[in-house]
Amino acid sequence: MSQMHQQAALSNCPSCAEPLESGDRFCGACGYDLSAHAAPSHDTPTLTMGNGSVPRPSAPAEEEGAQGAVWPHAPQQDGAADPSHTHLPTDLPGTDSGGSPLSGPPVPAAQGSGVRFDRPEEPEEYPLQAPDPRLAAEAGAPDESGAVCVACRAGRVDSDGYCENCGHAQPRERDHMEQESGAVAAVSDRGLRHHRNEDAFALGTAALPDGSAAVVAIVCDGVSSATRPDEASQAASRAARECLLAALPRGTHPQQAMHEAIVAAAHAVNSLAEEPSSAREHSPHQNAPACTLVGAVVTAGLLVVGWVGDSRAYWVPLDRTAPPARLTEDDSWAAQMVAAGLMSEAEAYADERAHAITGWLGADAYELEPHTASFKPDRPGVVVVCTDGLWNYAETAEEMAGVLPLDAAVRPLHSAQVLVGHAIDGGGHDNVTVAVLPFPTPPQGAGSA
């Protein structure tokens, strides 16, 4: 059976510290109830914990005979001595309700350890030192030798054709071309709807055997449904011009020379289709490069024109009271309908199939049929050779004469610019190319005014 805990005798009154007699229940000096303050027990009972039985000793009893040490007051510490270490609950390891270790707050490092944990977080990027403004000004100085952007007028144009300042795409060399060669001039423009200029022209002057001059103009229109139409028109125009400039000084008749020039142009375009077999395998359904051609040779007394396709040549007399004339007949669906008497010219050219061409230069052309014609005008005038990008806005000879400036014979370049501007103002749906040649040719050494 359990026994009651016996109270141990006190030697001094806990209140006034007066000596006590054995068996006293009250202090004789102050009347303190000694039964309310029992002596501490030396027993160490076992306490039941939530996670098992862990023995924990109580505070050790003071040695017998120690004076001035009364339980439960803590003994006074001498300030000169080292302070006692104080332990906090967080100093001891523990586990949560699931048995996992508790993560306590980080323990600061001791002073003098050489490691600091109170530094601010490091930035992801360190700011660079500001550059020297003198060096920046030198690096940013524009290159006066480089091309300047046509849009912002400030940035330089890189090798890809774009402005380094605003990113605007710069005009390509063929987007707008102008040339004046002696008495003949030509202008070509991309127009407002096409992404590139597929037209081309070539001009030249040759000396005939008798010493007189012959002026040459070739205008070509690339077929947009074919591959590389811009290359086709350029190759054809150059080949035709070179053939004419080589044949005329030898005394070849201008009309025969024009025929040979068209054949040479056809061969030049055909050669573009001679690609490696691997290229044809990647795009087997694409049409071969193709284009149309119209050309004129003007001498002191003869006018020769040649053509394949729907590019045209017009005659406009200086005396505007005389009738103008169209010198070519289109290789087109509309022209065939008119020639067969199935439609009037107005009805045929109003049809959506009007501009479908029936003749062209290219490897897939059905049959090459160069058209040539020679004329001996009895009065001075101007020859206009152009692509359909112009005559779509001045189709009849009368309309073309109405647009052509009156001083075209002496200002051919200005007149070509006016004609191209007329097409652009009318909508610019196609590439526009026109050459202007005065008839007869001026004497050798004389040019446009």
- Residues in helices, as a percent range: 10-25%
> Could you give the count of β-strands?
14
Rg, Å, rounded:
54 Å
Tell me the β content.
15-25%
Q: Termini, distance in Å?
A: 143 Å
Low-pLDDT residue spans:
1-7, 41-75, 83-92, 106-120, 135-144
Mean pLDDT: 79
- Coarse structural class: alpha+beta
What's the CATH first level of the domain at 176-275 and 286-439?
Answer: Alpha Beta
| CATH topology-level name of the domain at 176-275 and 286-439 | Phosphatase 2c, domain 1
CATH architecture of the domain at 176-275 and 286-439: 4-Layer Sandwich
Shape: rod-shaped
The largest sheet, given as strand count, sense and whether it forms a barrel, is:
6 strands, antiparallel
How would you describe what is shown here?
The chain is an alpha+beta fold and 449 residues long. It has 9 helices and 14 strands. It has a domain at 176-275 and 286-439: Phosphatase 2c, domain 1, CATH 3.60.40.10. A 6-stranded antiparallel β-sheet has the order 3-4-14-13-9-10. Strands 5, 6, 7, 8, 11 and 12 form a 6-stranded antiparallel β-sheet that branches. Helix 2 (229-247) packs antiparallel against helix 3 (254-272). The longest helix is centred in the middle third of the chain and has 19 residues, at 229-247. The protein starts with 47 loop residues before the first strand and ends in a 10-residue tail after the last strand.
Short summary:
By secondary structure, this protein is an alpha+beta fold. It has helices at residues 133-139, 229-247, 254-272, 277-282, 333-339, 345-350, 388-391, 397-403, 412-425, and strands at residues 48-49, 52-53, 176-181, 184-189, 199-207, 213-222, 290-298, 303-308, 312-317, 325-326, 361-362, 371-375, 381-386, 432-439.
